[in-house]
Amino acid sequence: MTASIDHLTEMLRGLRLDGVDYSRCQMAAPWGVVFPQSREACFHFISRGGCWLKTLAGEWVELRDGDAVLLPHGGGHILASSPEVVPSPPCDCRVRELYGNVFDVEGGGAGEHMLVFTGRMTFNVDIDHPLLRLMPDVMRIYDFAANEPGLPHLLEAMGREVAMDRVGAGGILARLADVVAATIIRNWVEFGCGTAKGWIAAARCPQIGKVLAAVHAHPETDWTVESLAGLMGASRSGFAERFAEVVGETPARYVAQVRMHQARQWLARDKLRIAVVAQRLGYESEASFSRAFKRITGSAPSQVRAAGGQQPTAMFAPSAEAAE
């Protein structure tokens, strides 16, 4: 497991959370809140009491004291004191802005009280990034606090930042939320229940994890199936079969997506000229790069560069409305 986690560190290097909205929610039964589909990731940590979560799939799942859930794709969902409660939009709660993007929320009736810490944030890569697409729609961890003994101290620190009106508290909360989300991801890898394909399988597999870490660390490299197979120490056919089995798509397709995501960052964020990006990625001409870019992303490089930092419409993120 140590090797897998080391590769996970490499895969997550540079993946940070921005624009955090942080809420300490004190709710009394009966209560229910709809969280609509969003481009932002969302996490909930049940600090006291318990509640129920309904996902886009329509499944109700009980969350107890110490459980945590991360929705990296921003999938619509419901939190409620019980599945029988008719939920309401978040605006029906009593919301007090403490400062910046930090809120104290109260709502519900006169029944049993519970406390949940909620965060809304965006990853500093767009939601079409292949690494985010490997993650499941819902990362649910039971008894999170027991598996992560440092978590109570982290939440205590977050609570202090909420309670004290100090300069820079919003930035500190954002970094603490980074740690919470990364801890959820790590805990999912170690203890979560995953399928045979996708994020959990890739992160747990030392051979595939090594390959993914290399691709994400050096997207400008002209990776071939042969060179990737060499990293894994396997034959070309054996590697290709194993990669597709674990990740769920071919090595060539995955590498192309990573490279074009990097190209999009250079175009939109850094405003590099198309010819420069094409050269960095080893294309013989700007035209050949443009064809490959549009084939993978669905947009022309010139359109992405002109749009700048605006997020494009997601190609692979969930598109359904909030759970009903």
What are the main properties of this structure?
single chain, 324 residues, Jelly Rolls, Arc Repressor Mutant, subunit A, 7-stranded mixed sheet, 4-stranded antiparallel sheet, 43% helix, disordered C terminus
Written overview of the protein:
Strand 8 and strand 9 (102-108) form a beta hairpin. The protein is α+β, with helices and mostly antiparallel strands and 324 residues long. It folds into 2 domains: 15-191, Regulatory protein AraC (Jelly Rolls), CATH 2.60.120.280; 205-307, Orthogonal Bundle (Arc Repressor Mutant, subunit A), CATH 1.10.10. It has a 7-stranded mixed sheet, with helices on one face. The protein has a 4-stranded antiparallel sheet with strand order 2-7-4-5, with no helix packed on it. It is built from 13 helices and 11 strands.
Helix/strand order, N-terminal first: HEEEEEEEEEEHEHHHHHHHHHHH
Look at the structure and name the CATH superfamily of the largest domain: Regulatory protein AraC
CATH topology group of the largest domain? Jelly Rolls
Measured between the Cα atoms of the first and last residue, the distance is 39 Å
Shape: globular
Query: How many strand segments?
Result: 11
Task: Please give the share of residues in helix.
Answer: 40-55%
Tally of domains: 2
Strand order of the largest sheet: 8-9-1-10-3-6-11
Radius of gyration: 21 Å
Q: Assign the CATH architecture of the largest domain.
A: Sandwich
Average per-residue pLDDT, rounded, comes to 79
Largest sheet: 7 strands, mixed
Question: Tally the helices: what do you get?
Answer: 13
* CATH class division of the largest domain: Mainly Beta
